[in-house]
Specification:
- The relative contact order is 0.14.
- The protein has 197 residues and is α/β, with parallel strands linked by helices.
- Strand 7 and strand 8 form a beta hairpin.
- The protein is built from five helices and eight strands; from the N terminus they run H-H-E-H-E-E-E-E-H-E-E-E-H.
Length: 197
């Protein structure tokens, strides 16, 4: 099925609507605040560390030898957390993306999205999608790491409180480029000044 369609009838199916009835109880004694980190198995640890440092801008926090982790392990950070991504060597080859679909990294401005696109292009990273999809309404760049793990750089995702309702599909503003996404924002997505590429 094409990723650029809004199936209004499908969104109203009973099995889909039933998901919205699933609620977290208010008495859970903890609150997960964010996704802390992702650990990936990779086939060539040096190559992958190079990608995440030289292309994605991560910094190495720590590394384990084979005696501490079979395949060796490298912890990488993109903010002040010790690590957001950790890589373990010894992967059998390219990822089939059967369990993990993708993971995303948020940047702080639309200008950084345009800068990220140019940086990826400069380093020969194939961009598989750019623009804005549907639910969440974030502006995104989608691409893969050397092992085929699908990645996203994004900005402007809708924010929801615990009992807020997400925006209806009628308010989704799909876009096939960063420029189109910047020129046609959904309600509430504040783009301070139009970006001039």
């Amino acid at each position: 099925m094409a990723r650029h369609n809004i199936d209004h009838a499908g969104l109203q199916r009973a099995d889909i609507l039933a998901f919205y009835e699933t609620e977290a109880p208010d008495d859970i004694p903890f609150a997960a605040a964010k996704i802390s980190h992702v650990v990936l198995k990779v086939s060539d640890l040096e190559r992958s560390v190079g990608f995440y440092t030289r292309i994605m801008g991560f910094r190495v926090s720590d590394a384990y030898p084979e005696s501490m982790m079979p395949g060796r392990m490298v912890f990488l950070r993109c903010n002040d957390d010790h690590h957001g991504v950790a890589l373990v060597g010894g992967g059998s080859g390219a990822s089939e993306n059967q369990e993990l679909h993708h993971f995303a990294f948020e940047v702080g401005s639309l200008d950084q999205m345009f800068a990220a696109r140019e940086h990826l292009r400069k380093h020969g990273v194939a961009i598989e999608f750019e623009g804005r999809r549907r639910a969440g309404q974030q502006i995104a760049l989608e691409f893969s790491d050397p092992d085929g793990h699908q990645l996203e750089i994004c900005w402007g995702m809708d924010r929801l409180g615990p009992h807020d309702v997400s925006r209806p599909p009628e308010e989704w503003r799909e876009a096939g480029s960063l420029e189109e996404a910047a020129q046609n924002p959904p309600r509430g997505q504040v783009i301070a000044v139009p970006f001039e590429p």
